[in-house]
Structures are given as C-alpha cells and as structure tokens.
Amino acid sequence: MERQMYHYATVSKALRELAEKGFTVDFNLKENHITEHPEDFEIVHVYRYEGESDPSDEATVYGIKSSKGEQGVYVAGQGANSEKGASTLLHKLSTKGRD
Predict the structure, then answer these.
(1) Which domain of life is it from (predicted)?
(2) Do the Cβ atoms of 35 and 15 come closer than 8 Å?
(3) Domain parsing of the chain, residue ranges
(4) Averaged confidence pLDDT in the chain
(5) Please, which residues bridge with residue 46 across strands?
C-alpha cells in the first residue's frame, strides 16, 4: 500500500483527521510491541510537523495498521527520545523501499 504524506497546520489536527479515518488506537502506549515486533506493523500515513519558531516543536505522526487489524497513531517528537526505540524503527519503516 502506498503511504500518504499529509501536511496539517498542527499535530492535533492531524490526529483528529486520522481518528476520523478510523485510526483510533494510541500506539505510543504499545511502543514495546512495536520495538519487539516491527514486522507486525505497516505505516500507511505519515505527517511531519515543523514548528514555525522553535525546532523542538517538530514531530512526526504515523498512521499505522497492525497485523491484527488495529488502526492507530504513533506520535514521535524530534527531541532526545526520538533517537531510540519505536521512533527509530518507525522512521526506518517509513523510508524503507524509497530511493
């Protein structure tokens, strides 16, 4: 499935619109499962938000489908915690197969 890239004014608007599309599970709460079983997840939507004045406002919102049929979101901030765990795996998955 082709991933869709969206551009919203805010992260909260992206989350609202993804929820309207059925992406209601908070995968941030299932981060350990993502890191232990990345093969169980497919990224279908990616949204990158950059704050206008503060680089620390950057975030990526992933719309994810699990192999169990769950649809949800994972929000990765671009701060210190984005260097490890699920954030790194999701970034790799989102760029996998791209030239």
Answers:
(1) Bacteria
(2) no
(3) 4-95
(4) 78
(5) 5, 62
Residue 75: Cβ within 10 Å count: 17
Sheet holding 41-49, edge to edge: 4-6, 41-49, 59-66, 71-77, 25-26
Considering only residues 25 and 58, tell me which one the structure prediction assigns the higher pLDDT. 25
At position 18, the amino acid (one-letter code) is: L
Which alpha helices (H) appear in the chain, and where do they start and end?
11-20, 31-36, 85-95
Residue with tokens 């990526």: 60
Which range, 9-13, 33-37, 55-59, 89-93, has the best average confidence (pLDDT)? 33-37
pLDDT beyond 80 at 91 = no
Output phi, psi for 98, to 5 deg.
-95, 150
Say which residue the tokens 């890239």 belong to: 5
Paired residues of 66 in beta bridges: 41
Q: How far apart are the first and last CA of the chain?
A: 17
- Report pLDDT for 79: 57
